[in-house]
Design brief:
Chain lengths: 218, 218, 218, 218
């Protein structure tokens, strides 16, 4: 399968990774949109949006115009914008996620797997990121707490240029179980986006998460 | 529920932990058997064997005599002795495992959870134990490789008095996922034996693993 | 060298470890003092105090009576009691420390070793202890910050029965350096006390830290 | 201080990092040499060589021609080539190292700091690198064993795209001390080269290691 894809946010750091990974996979970038405007060389099979909420209107226009699936990882969307996403999903497949890492999905699944058995164990979550990350805790740490389904302390460390380490430790009075994810390259997220874009082809309309993509990828 | 239990291997290090944990739970040791012979003070509801293959005949005698369930963690049993265990399991519940740690079971389940999604990722297993552990790799590391279902390098480290650390790391070109279990006390294994002994009560004949005990304990 | 030693706080958890370790080394417990009173069987060569501030007066009496060195790890002493300790040290060797672990001393020395070279690196300190430890951060974490000589965030985790893990990580934009100490047994502190008690023999009066003991032990 | 520098191996991955880091520091690349030949735009104050042994003759020519210091990190030099390096060092400063990471130097110094105190402790070294690294163990792991001054097992793990993690753990029967270095970017080595190039200015002839550079940088 070769895809012709449109990319909103092509000038950003994630945009460049997406182009690199999609090109390696043999897909063709036929539509780019960023702060400098549009570059159009063909009709896209799928729209990918990793940009800012300000570009959301352009994304919606493209999806409506071409009637093709949307993969969107843009953060900071408003509730109104999410309503529009849901609307689009009655017409085409829409895949929305804040984290397109396969490993983070696996971390969350491990938490789901063990939590019914470790109800009485202590739990601590730690997230470590580069010194430039201002917000605490990370969104992924909150996803971990959500998967755990109960309160847990989260420690946030800020160190050098660490791309992102997330750790959860369970402990009884005789043993500990630790599950840790570490991102070693931004490329990993682009690979999850690739998996998602390929997933959309031949799918009916619907609102999908990256979890659905992973489930289908076994 | 209060159990009257028999313990084969009562003088060993695990035997002493089992007595401590069972007593705390309100159970009563009515039969002890070790290198110094038998101490009998009542009729057991369950037999627990953490001893050596040489004591296996005594264990079989007790199970036959009292027609009560058996929980056995003795290592080094021969194939013939396993055949006898299977025979006993047609009459009473028999629970056999090499590792009664809840956390190790969780580690194995995490491996089962993620393996279908991480087929192309690299894998490394590491096990670290005290300097007195002669055999390499540990039995638990082999259980991990077995759960993984494919070949993986195992590194064995021997350090001080570390009770036991088992680690598995999966890695793609952009991320790593690590799952690690650490035993901080021998007590943890005794707690798994307790869970197993309690599990047997009211069960029909059958050959069970510690996994079955965990499944029932949710 | 065989020592006859007196032990203040003999009934406590550290007291029992000290007796075990000192006895293994061939030393003889000739004086015990705890909440139940005194047991005297000889004249001590050294007094060891791991008790509570309330027993401090008894300790001072023994040191004055026998004119022998003192090794003291009791926490919570008042400023007045420290003045008394300093006074005693003009007559006999006094060794005072809050942490008799050789490994913690090594951790502190590594911090001293690297800090002049890593002035612009980020730093994070983490300490993990059992769920029963109420105070945060640990005294050892504060010693680490003190050795570092500048402000650093300290994250405190409380998990199961972990005896104590202390970690410091330095990070630039291209690398990280982590130094971590983990206590696997209370015994380790008793071994530091043993080293200290042996260090006192033949020493002149003075106020010593465990660092001095370590320096002399190379 | 602004340097005009020459770079042998400018087309390689390290070469590109060096250009980026030197340019950020305000230095000017006036001489490049790689497989495509020479590009000359001025007279260098220092020659940097991160290439292959095959380019060594060109490097020697440049150093002789301009009588300027040399910083060399090229691996695989023959004994004869090292003799030539020593010769050059009677005329200009020559800095040779296999690892220009400040953090690795700190790791080695921590080993030096603790080793006289931990003679009886167990030791294990672990090195983890990306799947493409064929040789085992890594050169840095050997430097660690050398700093330790005694035999120690080295475990080598190969995982994903990990840039390089080196760990040494010391353990007694009651505690462990772990020192770990992790490279998060190739940039870190280029920064060590920068430090070395700046170190050479105003120095007399001599054969220096990266350790000398670090010592001078406090």
């Amino acid at each position: 399968m070769t895809l012709q894809y449109g990319l909103i946010g092509s000038a950003g750091r994630m945009g460049k990774e997406i182009v690199a990974v999609f090109n390696e996979a043999g897909h063709e970038n036929v539509l780019s949109y960023d702060i400098n405007g549009e570059q159009l060389q063909g009709v896209p099979d799928v729209i990918v949006d990793f940009s800012l909420p300000a570009a959301f209107a352009a994304t919606v226009n493209y999806v409506n115009k071409y009637k093709v699936p949307l993969v969107i990882g843009t953060t900071g969307l408003s509730e109104e914008q999410f309503v529009v996403l849901k609307d689009l999903s009655t017409m085409v497949p829409v895949i929305q996620s804040y984290n397109f890492s396969i490993g983070v999905q696996m971390l969350l699944r491990c938490i789901e797997t063990v939590k019914p058995h470790l109800k009485n164990w202590d739990v601590e979550i730690t997230e470590t990121h580069h010194r430039f990350k201002k917000d605490k805790p990370s969104g992924t740490a909150l996803m971990m707490k959500n998967a755990l389904g109960k309160e847990a302390p989260i420690s946030s460390l800020r160190l050098g240029n660490i791309a992102g380490i997330h750790t959860i430790t369970f402990a009884s009075l005789g043993e500990t179980l630790t599950i840790e994810h570490s991102a070693t390259s931004r490329r990993t997220f682009a690979e999850g986006v690739l998996l998602s874009a390929e997933f959309t082809q031949g799918k009916g309309p619907g609102y999908y998460s990256f979890t659905d993509v992973i489930d289908a990828a076994i």
